[in-house]
Design a protein that fits this description.
The chain is mainly α and 447 residues long. The chain has helices at residues 19-33, 49-57, 75-87, 97-111, 118-132, 137-150, 157-171, 185-192, 196-212, 216-233, 239-251, 258-262, 265-270, 273-284, 287-296, 299-303, 308-326, 334-341, 348-357, 384-446; strands spanning 60-61, 72-73, 331-333, 361-366, 371-377. The chain is elongated, with a radius of gyration of 39 Å.
Length: 447
């Protein structure tokens, strides 16, 4: 019989023996964890209940003169024995922490020799491991990882396994074990030829689970990836997921790039109008707009679990960034910042420091002049108004450069004039000396 295990990465698990021996060994182990004890008084101890059934199935078929080690097992009988072990594999969760992983690794190795293939047993195997993770958290995740590595690199089965690993990591509060590997998903999707709809589904699943763990920044990242992927491939995305994305970017205190969210086409048509209005306000509005919004939409904050203090802090930072963008002279007075942010004069420099830390602008404070000198500012949005701002800034810079160029030209003319004067004087002096020299020479020759 052709070895069905040749397609698997067998180097992951190094186990010596034949499939029949492995099935018999695992059946005996399951009997043991179920409480079967071998009588010590009998020379040939009887097999346990499961081991007895398996033994009757894994009869080696030998031909005359054939070495028993090289003989084949009837594929149908081997598959029946494997199925019998799989039906009782739930008992492996009773194993000790030390024995749990080796026992399951043996089961993985056995399944690579299944005549019907590992894929036929995968749904049940994943269910068993997820159930066992309640008692053996890290060991179950380790077995799932071994299973992932055992399956061929380009096998679509890996997609189902990574979903199970995600579920196990989240349910056992070990999600940090998986997070470093998630950036590899785009490469894996390509290797597995994963349909876009399944990719979007996994991203949404990841985001949902991370949201429940209050890991908002990472949840936002995968929700955004899901929406962008769906948009580029015309895959429909649930309105609930879009609403969740918008509420999370408002809730997360470090998130400030609202223009990127408003540019997702499904956002405006899927998100409730009052929530979209708030999102749009954070994309291009200022503190005064937010104050007005609060007066007529007070119920929205409780509805979407939004913290008003966090929102107020963020809109103040964004308002200060807007002041910097609108400053054609690249300077903003402390008094205008105090007024726009509705804070005292003493607090202005703290807000400037915060907005610089947030990466919205770069600049220098002058306590003496009570001004912020802007070196660079990140636009909150980039549409027609922003192009006008760019044009205005270019006009200012152009005017300044003209003035500088005029000064440079004038200085150059002065320098050239001065040098020309010196050169003329030098030439006149040199000519006079030549004349004197020539005169002396003539008198000598005459003599």
């Amino acid at each position: 019989m052709e070895d069905p295990g040749t397609d698997y990465n067998q180097g992951i698990l190094t186990i010596v023996g034949t499939p029949a021996e492995h099935v018999a060994e695992l059946a005996a182990f399951i009997d043991a964890v179920n409480g079967y004890e071998v009588p010590e008084t009998e020379e040939e101890a009887p097999l346990g209940p499961l081991a007895s059934q398996v033994a009757s199935l894994i009869v080696v078929l030998t031909s005359e003169g054939e070495d028993e080690d090289e003989a084949a097992i009837d594929p149908e009988s081997l598959e029946s024995a494997i199925k019998l072990v799989m039906d009782n594999a739930g008992s492996l969760s009773k194993a000790s922490e030390k024995d749990f992983e080796p026992a399951y690794n043996l089961l993985l190795h056995i399944l690579t020799f299944s005549p019907v293939g590992l894929s036929a047993h995968l749904p049940k195997l994943l269910t068993l491991l997820l159930a066992a993770s309640k008692e053996h958290a890290l060991a179950s995740i380790s077995v799932l990882t071994n299973l992932f590595n055992l399956v061929p690199f380009q096998s679509p089965l890996r997609f189902k396994i990574i979903v199970a690993i995600l579920e196990a990591c989240v349910s056992t509060e070990n999600v940090t074990l998986l997070l470093p590997h998630l950036p590899k998903l785009p490469q894996w999707f390509e290797e597995w030829s994963t349909p876009v709809a399944d990719q979007v589904s996994l991203y949404l699943d990841i985001a949902e689970k991370l949201n429940k763990l209050n890991d908002y920044p990472t949840a936002i990242r995968y929700l955004t990836d899901a929406h962008q992927l769906a948009e580029s491939s015309s895959v429909e995305i649930p309105a609930k997921a879009t609403t969740q994305l918008v509420s999370l970017v408002l809730k997360e205190k470090s998130f400030l790039d609202y223009d990127a969210i408003t540019r997702i086409s499904t956002v405006k048509k899927s998100v409730p109008s009052e929530l979209y209005t708030l999102l749009d306000l954070f994309a291009s509005g200022v503190l005064s707009d937010f104050t007005t919004f609060k007066l007529s939409n007070g119920e929205i904050f409780a509805k979407y679990d939004l913290d008003i203090d966090i929102l107020t802090t963020k809109i103040r930072l964004l308002t200060l960034a807007t002041l910097a963008i609108q400053a054609t002279t690249l300077t903003v007075s402390y008094s205008s910042i105090s007024q726009a942010l509705d804070v005292s004069a003493e607090e202005v420099e703290f807000w400037i420091i915060d907005v610089i830390r947030a990466g919205l602008l770069e600049g220098k404070m002058s306590q003496l002049e009570q001004k912020l000198f802007v070196h660079r500012v990140t636009p909150r949005t980039f549409g027609s108004e922003q192009w006008k701002e760019v044009q205005r800034s270019l006009d200012v810079w152009k005017s300044n450069l003209k003035e500088v160029l005029t000064v440079v030209r004038n200085a150059r003319v002065q320098v050239e004039t001065k040098l020309a004067g010196k050169d003329e004087k030098h030439q006149h002096h040199h000519h006079h000396q030549n004349n004197r020299a020539n005169g002396n020479k003539e008198s000598i020759e005459v003599a």
